[in-house]
Design a protein that fits this description.
Elements (H helix, E strand, L loop, with lengths): L5 H4 L2 H7 L23 E3 L14 H5 L5 E7 L11 E9 L8 H5 L5 E3 L14 E3 H4 L20 H14 L20 H10 L1
Antiparallel strand pairs: 1-4, 2-3, 3-5
Amino acid sequence: MPEFLNSVKGFGVTFRQMFRKVDTVQYPEEKLPTAPRFHGRHQLNRWPDGLEKCIGCELCAWACPADAIYVEGADNTPEERYSPGERYGRVYQINYLRCILCGLCIEACPTRALTMTNDYELADDSREALIWTKEQLVAPLQAGMEAPPHPMRLGETEEDYYRLGAMLAASEPAATPRNPVQQGPVQDWPAPDEQVQAGDDQ
């Protein structure tokens, strides 16, 4: 190609796109479905009796590369129990001005308390409104659940509680508020004992 045409060659992609049909999405009137494992807004899950799965360990905050998560743990007491463990997340905040929706926080969670929904409509014109608190992130109470604080209802010991709770959670559909555009289940992972059994079977 002659040297004087090099400048024209650089606009080749631009010229090709000029004659292609424009793919216009009529958002927000028309909302396209997301992928089933789409990384959207976070959710703090509950056990089948209503207690919170979060134990305030702060591993999600340590795993976050954007330093977007802030957690303050507190101790459960016999009079006030919010989770089946020794501690619970008293304060939980996610700063969506920083969050990059990478999912590393849910990988780090040892109790599957934190998962990600398909809700992607997080935009706002206020910086303060984009710092979501525990009250906004925690899953709503479903039928059969009791608002904490209350004693453990699923077993006498923590081991019985976790085993029975995992069985009930697996047998029931996910109690999660759904986004209108959502088509797949909320992202969740096998429990540690299920992972070990799967590895032993191979």
